[in-house]
Design a protein that fits this description.
One of its GO terms (molecular function) is ATP hydrolysis activity. This is ABC transporter domain-containing protein. Keywords: ATP-binding, Nucleotide-binding. The protein is of the alpha/beta class and 295 residues long. The chain contains eleven helices and 15 strands. The strands form three sheets. A six-stranded mixed sheet has the order 6-7-8-3-9-10, with helices on both faces. A hairpin with a 2-residue loop joins strand 4 and strand 5. Helix 4 packs antiparallel against helix 5. The chain is elongated and about 70 Å long. The relative contact order is 0.14.
């Protein structure tokens, strides 16, 4: 179990993390989302033991990750900076990390290099952006680490390789059962692979949602308001956020029991109410802000 407890971190007097608390269990894929500057990368680096928390702690199976090297060695962090040890070849990476990680799977590593057509004797810094992303993900999955901390792991991948990378993550979680924390802006990917998603806002966890429970906890609706009824009639309702507006037609996200929503919206002045397909992106907007799109 990876436990983040009240973690605070500041740089030059500016708080980047402000009391972050959550946990992740083996076999679980946890998504971490937030707007630019919310602190996602700083949080991952702190979880990996690269940054020392100013307050609070990160523990793996009860061991402080920053203070105990054995705890750090059970985790593997993939940065979004694709030049990390770029002067190494894949073969050199294998020699180094097979000494650090006793469960390193050499056969799986070579198999992934072949599957993605990654040359073992070329320096990684000469790879394309997509090839680098595939390589670092292949390395992470081969280490046998008990926890994988991934920062934008599919950045630069074409659609075919992206689909394969996501498949590998899901298989790893199901078979080897590492805990996996993924920070990304690609919400559709988390919708496909994550068990739950944490919303990071101004250095704090501002709620979470289980992906399987999206459809029961939230609903997306198209609403046509009666003449003379303004959008404020909907905004006054608890748990309602307007996502888009074209004249008197609104797209709204509503938190609450779906069977109660049409009646609530009609009481507020809606003439027409129709359910729409819900995406994780809609909940992201609800949680983390932004103004309604206007047509």
């Amino acid at each position: 179990m990876l436990e983040v407890d009240g973690v605070r971190k500041a740089f030059d007097g500016r708080a980047v993390l402000d009391g972050v608390t959550f946990s992740a269990a083996p076999g679980e894929i946890v998504g971490l989302v937030g707007r630019n500057g919310a602190g996602k990368t700083t949080l991952l680096r702190t979880m990996a033991g690269i940054f020392r928390p100013d307050a609070g702690s990160v523990r793996y199976d009860g061991l402080d990750v920053y203070r105990v090297p054995e705890a750090r060695a059970r985790l593997f962090f993939v940065t979004d900076e694709r030049e990390w040890l770029g002067h190494y070849t894949p073969k050199a990476f294998l020699a180094l990390f097979s000494r650090i990680y006793p469960r390193f799977d050499r056969e799986a590593f070579w198999a992934r290099l072949r599957a993605f057509d990654l040359p073992p004797n070329r320096k990684v810094q000469t790879f394309s952006k997509g090839m680098k992303g595939l390589f670092y993900l292949s390395l992470a999955l081969s280490t046998g680490a008990e926890g994988l901390l991934l920062d934008e792991p599919t950045e630069g991948l074409d659609p075919i390789y992206k689909k394969e990378a996501l498949r590998l993550l899901v298989e790893a979680a199901a078979e080897a059962r590492p805990l996996i924390v993924v920070a990304t802006h690609r919400l559709e990917e988390l919708e496909a692979i994550a068990d739950r998603v944490l919303f990071l806002r101004e250095g704090r966890i501002d709620g979470e949602v289980a992906v399987e429970a999206l459809q029961t906890r939230y609903g997306k609706w198209q609403v046509a308001l009666a003449e003379g009824v303004g959008p404020e009639a909907l905004e006054r309702l608890s748990g309602v956020r307007i996502l888009a507006r074209t004249g008197r037609v609104m797209t709204v996200l509503v938190e609450g029991a779906p069977e109660e929503v049409p009646g609530r919206l009609r009481e507020a002045g809606a003439l027409f109410v129709e359910p729409l397909p819900l995406r994780l992106e809609d909940v992201y907007v609800r949680k983390l802000g932004g103004t309604p799109d206007e047509g």
